């Protein structure tokens, strides 16, 4: 169901084409079958996460590079995404950065804009849409939820207006106990 959205749109277009304008009973039956199929797809859709699954949990990820060890801790409230990044550098000591952003879950990878009305609502989706500021303007970043459980969280960058250097953006976090 990787292309579910496109499939639904194509099937709805076919249903409209077959079901409009005084078509034959056969075309109306085909349109009805297509509508039933689309309805089944919608009912069979299982989002990757809900805000209830994320709220109150903390996951962590550690990586090492030249002279640096980086630890990221991610946690959620019902309306806030919190990322605490700690850099341990052998030549400069320890630096800690904290990013707190409003967020919501969505089935759309890249909505047209950040939808403030969805923040703090009990919702489901495959993407974390988190508010950010870039070049002085409010915008958003979209993170694809690849896997979520109490023990593990896997995220991949789906959309960002901010240019990045290197890396895939995919991160695996494990539960902090």
How is this structure best described in words?
The protein is α+β, with helices and mostly antiparallel strands and 177 residues long. 23% of the residues lie in helices and 44% in strands. It has 3 helices and 10 strands. The strands form 2 sheets. It has an 8-stranded antiparallel barrel with strand order 2-3-4-5-7-8-9-10. A hairpin with a 2-residue loop joins strand 2 (58-65) and strand 3. Helix 1 (4-19) runs antiparallel to helix 2. The longest helix has 20 residues, at 25-44.
Give a topology summary.
Blueprint: H1 4-19, H2 25-44, E1 49-50, H3 51-54, E2 58-65, E3 68-76, E4 80-89, E5 93-106, E6 124-125, E7 127-134, E8 137-148, E9 152-159, E10 171-175
Antiparallel strand pairs: 1-6, 2-3, 2-10, 3-4, 4-5, 5-7, 7-8, 8-9, 9-10
Helix pairs in contact: 1-2
The gist of it:
With 177 residues, this protein is of the alpha+beta class.
Task: State the end-to-end distance.
Answer: 34 Å
Shape: elongated
Low-confidence stretches: none
Helix content: 10-25%
Which value, in Å, is the CA radius of gyration?
21 Å
User: How many beta-strand runs?
Assistant: 10
Taking strands numbered 1, 2, ... along the chain, how are they ordered across the largest sheet?
Answer: 2-3-4-5-7-8-9-10
Order of helices and strands: HHEHEEEEEEEEE
Q: β content, as a range? A: 35-45%
Overall mean pLDDT stands at 82
Number of helices: 3
Structural class: alpha+beta
The biggest sheet amounts to: 8 strands, antiparallel, barrel
